Amino acid sequence: MFIDRLDRQQRIAGWKQEVLERSSVVVIGDDPLLTSLFILSASALGLNRLTAMAPGLNSSITDIARKINEKMELAFLEGYFVHPAMNCLLRGCKAIVDLTGYGIANKLSFHRSFLGDVPTFRGFITEGDIDELKVFTYMKGREWDELTRVMSPSQFPSPKSHDPVLSIILSGIVLEEVCRFLMGFEISDEVISYGREKPGAEDFNLSICVVGAGALGNFVGLGLALSGFRNVTFMDPDVIEISNLNRQVFFYDSVGKRKAQVLAERLSEIFEINARYDISYFDMQTDISSFDIVFDCVDNFETRLVISRKCKEERKLLISGGSSASAGQVVVYDPRTSRHTPAEILGLDRIVDERKLNHYRRRRESCIYRPEPSVVMTNQVIGGFMVDLFRQVIGGYEVDNIFYDSNSPKKI
Question: Both 27 and 169 in a single domain?
């Protein structure tokens, strides 16, 4: 079952799962949620040897991480990384992940990388009128002036609690870089960054429909729940398959059950939200009149086209996301300001027409019949961006569509 669970990512050209499974990674943090989100996705990816040092972890998230991957060995040291004597925990590791917001930890991890061959993957969030995340990988030989852009101004540790949606995005990008390094793929030599104004007033009572309860749906649901939105309905007729489990993080023990039902029940239980489910297909007869916002998290162009048409017809705010093994996009349709729907921007009419000529037929068991490579990080990043753009729109800001490419140095 463990091998089958990882099937989709092992279809990626050059993928080296055995390298990931035997590589030891150390995670240093000061925000329990951010640190735990990295552990969650690392577990789904099949990183089996993790050491975390932080003042605490989010027990709900780490409990899921342990259930996702029974082979994962997680050693947790409670506290802050503040002294060279603590370098002993870095012995034998292949990568250091520094998610902290204090200079002592930054200097200690960078110094360890300078002395040896182990890189430091630095990821952090700065918050103010403009919230920004940055990611940079340091290894011996990289320009020192770049380090000044990723050093924390505060030298001493203090408890942190970052924006949860930015934490989802950040931890996914950092894990992407760690994964690429361990398997010998090219990593970014730039400072990866994403910034936006702090979300304005948010109405947590909005009625939300998430169409598609797969990988994107899992992370959209997680982002909504962590942000405080309580009234969410998941719509998906599909059942959970073993090959879903490398990226659909809430389904660890539910193979054969309905995705929408399991996701709604699990999020309601963990985060005390009012999540519902609907196991119907989405079509032009679907009633969306009661919803304020629709998230398009589906895995096929045919349904995505229908969602765009339906939301345009009924003037519903639509956040549409799509992902592949290495890239993805988020396209927003706001009926008050948008001229074109996501389907029109992405040219889905033409693609669907071509498929009809080839007698394409949508099958419910999509992952069996359309076994493209898929991995957790891209879905995590795109799902996070979907929720982030949604929060900006309802907060009164104009937004740009997001295009993400893990093979690009800038990524975003």
Answer: yes
